[in-house]
Please model this.
Amino acid sequence: MKSGETERVFESQSRPNHRRVNQHVATSYDERLNGILAVATELIADVGYQKASMRAVARAAGISLAGLYHYFPHKERMLFLIQSRTFNALVNNLRERLHGVDDPVEQLCVMVRAHVGYFAANMAALKACSHELDSLSGAGYEETSRIRREYYNLARSIVDRLLETRAPESTLDRHIATMCLFGMLNWLYRWYDPKRDRSPTAVANQITTQFLRGVLGEAK
Model:
């Protein structure tokens, strides 16, 4: 075997091993990061951002304080990731579900079901995101606000189309209508228990019906 062929054989044998090792390390890091964020989200939802110290998060996650700082240089970075991941998930999920749906009533149904379904499985994230935006500052605040505005704009566009097509004579303020919709959706953590109450789909259907009767009933 020529020397060049020998080198290629050893390269082909060794490189996949390096990739497997790197992928394993990356997966382990991401899994650990996700686990810490889940613990931090629950703690922030329970006691609030100010009381959820880095030491308390480390204790709850079962790691050392130094180990926690390996993942997060400061507590605000942790809150930013909770907020940005939550709203990016909402935006991406809603865009995907709305693809090919043209009727604004059905778009509203899709939006409400997606929102309720996501937060029924992530109630702590709903509470943390509803309460703690103002705990962020600087670039983290701006980026989180941008993602939240993107989600608001998706919902607002549905409300706009709904009123334009079903109640063109309506004098309702569309911003207020959109915020009232979010008021119903984001208050779920105060009273809704998916394990005890009706299913997320049933809750979403009733919220949709009440909202439609409110905004379209006014026009009639």
In short: The CA atoms of residues 116 and 200 lie 6 Å apart.
